[in-house]
Amino acid sequence: MNITDVRVRKVAKEGKMKAVVSITIDEEFVVHDIKVIEGEKGLFIAMPSRKATDGEYRDIAHPINSSTRDKIQTIILEKYQEAVAEEEAAV
């Protein structure tokens, strides 16, 4: 699996959510609405989710194992940091 495109849309308002990201896998499959969140231990990603009838949120798309999650998270956070750096350089 190769992530062939990452599109970062920064969130302008204050809060824990810093960006919403879309990734393209192998130039064939897109996953939208991955969130970049500022947590107590730093940035992490939250996969797209939906509120179930019991009020709980459940991921609607997610990696099967932790190594794949780590790979996706690393790539997304690198692209997010690049977007932040570009924005700061433009100011």
Q: Which residues sit in consecutive blocks of at least 5 with pLDDT less than 50?
A: none
Determine the mean pLDDT: 94
End-to-end gap: 36 Å
Q: What structural class do helix, strand and pairing data support?
A: alpha+beta
Largest sheet: 4 strands, antiparallel
* Quaternary organisation: single chain
Please state how the strands of the largest beta sheet are arranged side by side: 1-2-3-4
Number of E strands: 6
InterPro entries: SpoVG, SpoVG_sf
Family: Belongs to the SpoVG family.
Protein name: Putative septation protein SpoVG
Keywords: Cell cycle, Cell division, Septation
Short description:
With 91 residues, the protein is α+β, with helices and mostly antiparallel strands. It has one helix at residues 66-90, and strands at 3-10, 17-25, 29-39, 42-46, 49-51, 57-59.
Mind explaining what this structure looks like?
- It comes from Blautia faecis.
- Belongs to the SpoVG family.
- Could be involved in septation.
- This is Putative septation protein SpoVG.
- This protein has 91 residues and is an alpha+beta fold.
- Helices cover 27% and strands 43% of the residues.
- The protein has one helix spanning 66-90, and strands at 3-10, 17-25, 29-39, 42-46, 49-51, 57-59.
- The protein has a four-stranded antiparallel sheet, covered by helices on one side.
- Strand 3 and strand 4 form a beta hairpin.
- It is globular and about 45 Å long.
- The chain starts with a strand and ends with a helix.
